[in-house]
Amino acid sequence: IGRCLAEQQLLRDRSLALSPDVNTPFKSLSDAMRRLVRYHTLQDHKPEEGSKTMKTWDTRYSKLCDYLVKKKRCYMQRFCKMQ
């Protein structure tokens, strides 16, 4: 549920950042912060191609994929035995 709520908030923030209220002035510092913080969803955080960060990400992603494939095979074997 937590991840789903986080994804919903990101989508809401992105939507509000792409169609901001440009006519209403900021009422306070907290109002400005609340309305401007939504622009974080538009930042590009992709690491540069060939960088150490990218290689680390690729390695982790590859390990995760291998793990998930093995887990799927295990579940499929269990399922086949049950039939």
What are the main properties of this structure?
GSCR1_dom; GLTSCR protein conserved domain-containing protein; mainly alpha; 0% strand; 83 residues; Chromatin_remod/trans_coact
User: How would you spell out the order of helices and strands?
Assistant: HHH
Which range does the strand content fall in? under 5%
Biggest sheet overview? none
What is the straight-line distance between the termini? 32 Å
The low-pLDDT segments are none
* Structural category: mainly alpha
Q: Radius of gyration from the CA trace? A: 21 Å
Tally of separate helices: 3
Q: How many β-strand stretches?
A: 0
Structure overview:
The protein contains 3 helices and no strands. The mean pLDDT is 83. It has 2 domains: 1-45; 50-83. The protein has 83 residues and is mainly alpha-helical. It is elongated, with a radius of gyration of 21 Å. Pfam families: GLTSCR1. InterPro entries: Chromatin_remod/trans_coact (IPR052438), GSCR1_dom (IPR015671). One of its GO terms (cellular component) is SWI/SNF complex.
